[in-house]
Design a protein that fits this description.
With 1129 residues, this protein is α+β, with helices and mostly antiparallel strands. 30% of the residues lie in helices and 14% in strands. The chain has 32 helices and 33 strands.
């Protein structure tokens, strides 16, 4: 319907008046019992109820809200082809909280009385009286005659500020009291935080409190909801006075999934995985590209047909809500991550759905399934029957179904969720009973990766790896049906940690393997048919591998795997005799291994770490991790992620033998390739064999104790990437950060669970409503660290510069670079197919003047071919230009070299693509100046003046070794042609290459976390302008091709370094335990007893699994926990 009359500036024209009467006729059908309806004038903007005569007068005298072109709030039916507006389209100067309440509660935000059946949609109705206070707050002004705020708008914006800035409840309540006193008498400002929270609770989705047995035996839920004693251990439900020992907080996921479709801001994104994502054969960019997703579609085509059916990942881990306090406490949230959305939405913390908050102070251990019961029951309903939901995007009802397709957790929690114990000789949950283990002194090691090689491979015949030839086949693949057969042999245990529970201490039978239980997730009808049920967490594997390597290199007494016991292990296996402990003059000597650094090298290594400068926003300041005693400490998981992939390959270049460092660099590049946002199937297939080669080479270098279970798990990561797609949606970085947010919610230290719960519900409501308020910073409008300026829309992309300058400008004359500008123009002429012999003449005499004159003549004649862009370009830039020292380009911070040297971050490195001798070429350099050139008609062009390093292969100023590119930074290339457009630059950073000298640097490219290389379906009628300059895509990683060049055993000893002298009594104490344990699947050792609901008994191995972000998993005795959910959040 034509609504152009709304833009008519003449409010008394016949066209405008007729349009007003048209609106009045529609509004008359949507009156409430008092004869009122919403007024859409500029002042009322759909927030005030008025009589028809008043509305007519307002529209004539004040004017109409031009953005309200579809009168859905006045009973008008929307057409089916109307698309839900995006956030950018719907944002204007007015808030849209009426739409927010409509999306949240499923009814119109005015009381339309008996005419409610005229609302033209199929949204399920709800009891409107429950939301009376919300409607009243929406329609009441903050104070009399206030036209800027309703009471609800004011509360939401104020709560948003509280949430964004993490105000305490006390400070917020003090502010409310002050505002209530400052505003005119009779205002509607809440006087307390409690009143504010009560108002928003109706928008929130709430939670359920479920009492738990004090020994984690059972929930007082379902048929036991009214019981007063535990149905398992018969202990009392309450401490005293109806106060339970424990309470589980359960957040039903059905209303939260329905709200994703109710909201006009998320309904369309929930279809993205099927309707907008473009499939590319052989390329993995989203979990939907993986084999597991496609296999699920084939098994359940009825589920796959409707793109609105939700697939989720289940993530869980324990954390201590008391931060670094000495109190030991383990609380376990269970988070669901919907994968229907694009990656940049599904991984946003606002879309993480908290479903369970398992109380502490003890870890649930084997009894994790007890707490999952309500969630699994709800998942079964969502799978088998589905629930009725409303899709705001299509304005129709549908049956919503959902499925959990895998779990995400660290390795200890993997055991809780899967039921397979991740400790002991069969610790690998992928190899299961075929795990290749070996018993060494006081622990197990997991060597024998030669079994993955081809049966005729020459390495299988060597005895230098573990003292034996490798004749075993690779581990078998165990399907879901195979696992179900194994689980039939598992004895059903009584849950709980009650003292009288005989199942607490028992020995596992041989036929049970490492299964401790049958996971409750197998109750889901589809669970056993999934190709990938439990993900190995790459984040924690990376950290453990990094700790193993760094600890051994620096000979850290706490983390090194090259201990005296490790040398005795070599003696037990009768391999690498040169590394054995030797007795001389009554003393024992430990030869210095080639894979450990000397004290001088350790100091130099730490000095290198201290010199590292990374790009702004790329990582934390890793140089702080180099501590005084020549060790690295205090590294977080992301520090290890960056150190392993980018820094360590360069840091070890001067110190280790070429074969040793080559193997370690290949290991680091394996993780770099694996963690890329875009994966290629053919490369992953190569990585499956490549990681086997790397691990076999490492077995030839490091002692057996180096090969913990976390190192072994690397062999399974490429296969899991083929099944599940990119790593980023399946690792623990996102859930761990979300748990950090939950930790910040704790205000009442006596009731951490209640504090987190109340804060989460309020945060959930404020986050939802903040999508609908404007002119205020919210989670969805918060500028990024390096925020961009809006992109201009000129026809010539040369002038469309998304560049935000920073700092104080300076000015200079363009004639300084006149010769350089001519060289730039020569390249333009080559692109236009001008003959080589005519370039100089055409450039200096003909073309510039002809172009300028021609455009001027066309402009004078009014010829449309001479548009403002071409005319501006033809007239040339102003002779005076502006110089900046910093700028933001496409979300990336660049700084000039001179200014950049003052910072601890490095933002001056640049690279750009081009050609050299008719071949594609990549140029590396540093940024010297940022130039802003002004043209007529307010056109601007931003250019970078760079110093380019000589990367010509003929000049030997660039060396490539181990896929690392090292440059001589004293060289200079293309000094007469230093300019590129700002949008052509890609950021790099440089690390010192001390193996070649102080003038050499290794270049490392940067892949920014917020840039996704994902193709989407485009509309056929979309206007695609020809781009003059096309931005470079994400840099391609070097080819992953591990060599089979192994080191000789004799080279594993540094004979130029004095051996370490060990105390005689220390070695004598170790000597008696010299038996060699060889893996034999026909022999079964008895596993140790496990107690207190934990699946782990080896403290040493537990320390290896836990990162700094993990919680304590040990059980403690503490006072009974009786939370009060009304405590401050």
């Amino acid at each position: 319907m034509d609504r152009e009359w709304m833009k008519d500036p003449n409010k008394v024209s016949p066209r405008y008046v007729a349009g007003v009467e048209e609106f009045i006729r529609v509004a008359l059908q949507c009156m409430n019992l008092d004869g009122l309806t919403l007024c859409l004038c500029i002042k009322c903007v759909n927030r005030k109820l008025q009589k028809i005569d008043v509305i007519r007068a307002h529209l004539i005298t004040v004017g109409i809200n031009e953005s309200y072109t579809r009168w859905v709030n006045h009973g008008e039916e929307e057409s089916e082809d109307d698309e839900c507006p995006s956030i950018e389209e719907v944002q204007n100067e007015y808030d849209d909280l009426g739409a927010a309440l409509y999306d949240a509660v499923g009814v119109n935000f005015i009381n339309i009385g008996s005419t409610s059946d005229l609302i033209a949609d199929e949204r399920p109705t709800v009891e409107q009286a429950h939301y009376e206070k919300l409607f009243e707050a929406l329609n009441n002004p903050l104070y009399k005659d206030c036209e800027s705020f309703s009471a609800l708008t004011f509360v939401i914006k104020l709560m948003n500020i509280k949430v964004m800035n993490k105000w305490s409840d006390k400070s917020f309540e003090m502010l409310l009291k002050l505002l209530h006193e400052a505003l005119p008498e009779g205002n509607n400002c809440p006087e307390s935080y409690y009143d504010t929270r009560r108002l928003l609770c109706d928008v929130g989705l709430g939670y359920e409190l479920i009492d738990v047995c004090q020994y984690d035996c059972a929930l007082f839920y379902g048929e036991h909801a009214t019981a007063t004693v535990c149905p398992v251990c018969k202990s009392c439900r309450y401490v005293h006075n109806q106060i339970p020992h424990k309470r589980l907080r359960y957040f039903p996921i059905t209303p939260r999934l329905k709200r994703l479709y109710n909201s006009r801001y998320t309904a369309k994104d929930m279809r993205w995985h099927k309707e907008q994502r473009e499939e590319e054969p052989g390329i993995l960019r989203h979990p939907a590209d993986g084999k597991a997703w496609k296999h699920f579609d084939e098994l359940y085509p009825d589920f796959a047909t409707d793109s609105r059916n939700v697939r989720m990942g289940l993530a869980s881990d324990g954390f201590n809500p008391f931060s670094n306090m000495s109190t030991t406490y383990s609380m376990w949230p269970v988070i669901l991550i919907p994968y229907n959305m694009p990656p940049w939405c599904s991984m946003h913390k606002s879309n993480y759905l908290l479903s369970l908050l398992i109380p502490g102070p003890k870890s649930p251990g084997k009894d994790f399934d007890v707490f999952l019961r309500p969630l699994v029951d709800e998942l079964n309903v969502l799978w088998c029957n589905g629930v009725d939901a409303f899709d705001e995007y299509s304005h129709s009802k549908f049956t919503l179904r959902a499925a959990v397709i895998w779990t995400i957790s660290d390795f200890p929690a993997y055991a809780y969720l899967s039921g397979w114990s991740t400790m002991g000789k069969l610790a690998c949950p992928i190899c299961l009973e075929d795990t290749r283990y070996r018993k060494i002194r006081d622990k197990q090691c997991y060597m024998g990766h030669r079994c993955f090689l081809h049966s005729s491979h020459v390495w299988r015949k060597s005895k230098e790896y573990d003292g034996q030839q490798e004749k075993r086949p690779p581990p078998r693949y165990f399907s879901g049906a195979d696992i179900l057969l194994q689980l039939e042999n598992v004895i059903l245990r009584t849950p709980g940690k009650a003292p009288n529970n005989a199942s607490r201490k028992r020995k596992r039978g041989v036929e049970e393997l490492n299964w401790s239980k049958k996971s409750i997730l197998f109750e889901l009808p589809y669970w056993s048919k999934l190709l990938l049920r439990n993900n190995l967490d790459v984040m924690h594997i990376e950290k453990n591998v990094c700790d193993n390597i760094i600890g051994t290199l620096l000979d850290d007494p706490l983390k090194s795997k090259d201990t005296a016991k490790a040398r005795l292990d070599l003696e037990d296996l009768k391999i690498r005799k040169d590394l054995w402990l030797t007795e001389r003059n009554g003393k024992y000597e430990k030869p210095h291994a080639s894979y450990t650094l000397t004290k001088e090298d350790c100091a130099s290594f730490c000095d290198f770490i201290k010199s590292v400068r990374l790009p702004d926003g790329y990582a934390s300041n890793i140089s702080r991790c180099a501590i005084d005693n020549n060790k690295l400490g205090g590294m977080k998981t992301h520090d290890c992620h960056v150190l392993l992939q980018k820094i360590l390959p360069v840091a070890i270049l001067p110190y280790l033998d070429k074969r040793i460092r080559g193997t370690l660099i290949e290991f680091c590049q394996f993780f770099q390739k694996l963690c890329a946002k875009t994966l290629h199937v053919n490369e992953l297939e190569e990585m499956k064999s490549g990681i086997v080669t790397i691990l076999c080479k490492l077995e030839k270098i490091f002692p057996p104790s180096f090969f913990t279970i976390m190192v072994h798990l690397c062999v399974h990561l490429p296969e899991q990437a083929l099944l599940g797609g990119p790593v980023s949606p399946r690792w623990m970085f996102g859930p761990e950060r979300r748990m950090g947010t939950y930790k910040s919610y704790v205000r009442n230290l006596a009731r951490p669970e209640g504090s987190i719960t109340e804060a989460y519900v309020v945060d959930e409501a404020v986050t939802f409503l903040s999508r609908y308020v404007h002119n205020i910073e919210t989670r969805f409008t918060r500028p990024e660290r390096n925020w961009d300026v809006p992109t201009t829309t000129y026809k010539l992309d040369l002038f469309n510069n998304k560049v935000r300058t920073m700092g104080a400008p300076s000015f200079s004359k363009l004639r300084v670079y006149e010769r350089v500008v001519q060289c730039e123009h020569k390249e333009v002429l080559r692109v236009r197919d001008v003959r080589e012999e005519d370039l100089e003449v055409a450039q200096k005499e003909e073309f510039p003047l002809w172009f300028k004159t021609k455009m001027a003549l066309l402009k004078a004649c009014g010829d449309p071919r001479s548009n403002d862009d071409l005319y501006s370009l033809s007239q040339g830039a102003d002779d005076r230009y502006t110089i900046w020292h910093s700028c933001i380009v496409n979300g990336v911070c660049f700084r000039c070299k001179e200014h950049d040297d003052k910072f601890k971050t490095q933002c001056s490195g640049v690279c750009a693509g081009g050609d050299h001798e008719s071949a594609n070429f990549t140029y590396y350099g540093v940024l010297l100046e940022i130039l802003e050139l002004d043209f007529i008609y307010q056109r601007k062009v931003f250019m970078f003046r760079c110093k380019w390093y000589n990367t010509d292969p003929k000049c030997k100023r660039m060396m490539v070794e181990h896929n690392l590119t090292s440059l001589d930074v004293t060289s200079n290339w293309y000094a007469e042609d230093p300019f590129i457009l700002a949008t052509q630059a890609q950021q790099v950073f440089y690390l010192s290459d001390w193996s070649r000298g102080k003038n050499w640097m290794v270049v490392q490219k940067v892949n920014h976390r917020n840039i996704y290389d994902i193709l989407e379906h485009k509309d056929d009628d979309e206007d695609l302008n020809d781009e003059v300059f096309q931005e470079e895509e994400s840099s391609e990683l070097p080819t992953f091709q591990p060599t089979e060049d192994v080191i000789e055993t004799s080279l594993l000893v540094r004979r130029d370094v004095q051996p370490i002298i060990l105390p005689d009594d220390f070695v004598v104490d170790l000597r008696p335990n010299s038996e060699v344990f060889i893996n034999n699947r026909g022999e079964d050792e008895e596993d140790g007893e496990f107690d207190d609901g934990l699946l782990f008994g080896d403290d040493e191995l537990m320390c290896e699994y836990l990162s700094d972000e993990d919680s304590d998993h040990e059980d403690i005795n503490d006072d009974d926990d009786d939370d009060d959910d009304d405590d401050d959040s």
